[in-house]
Amino acid sequence: MKITRQKHAKKILSFYKNNFNIVPPYNVxxxxxxxxAALKHKIQMKEQLPKYLMGEVQLCTTRCVLKELESLGxxxxxxxxxxxKFQVRHCAHSTSPVSGxxxxxSLVADDNSRHYFVATQCSQLNxxxxxxxxxxxxxxxxxxxxxxxxxxQI
Length: 154
Description:
Subcellular location: Nucleus, Nucleolus
Protein name: rRNA-processing protein UTP23 homolog
InterPro entries: Fcf1/UTP23 (IPR006984), PIN-like_dom_sf (IPR029060)
CATH class: Alpha Beta
Helix content: 40-55%
Pfam family, one: Fcf1
CATH superfamily: 5'-nuclease
CATH architecture: 3-Layer(aba) Sandwich
Keywords: Nucleus, Ribosome biogenesis, rRNA processing
């Protein structure tokens, strides 16, 4: 990782640590689009995210995200396999699954008490999460070297 990118990430993480008491191990909620982008760019999330965040990372997803990937068929089969390897966090709508975006938003709603990071490529989820104060959004720009860039929306 380049030094400037590492300094930027360290600055953002120290801000969240000091203001919102977000400390390792970091809980990273991953949606299907992020898994697909990681697969496309051949990025090992379990290796790269801890390096970037400079601490332990717990990658997790929800049942709704897994159901959404399953319903989208063969095009996202690889992303589904990747997402199945993560911890599955229980959501309020396990009996009637909703879209992955709605499910992730419900988990980080209001105060984000579990201090989730959101890993997404979805522009809709990105814009909805950036309106909230306590969420660090991790998005990839599409190029391999810029894939793990961070945005802090405060």
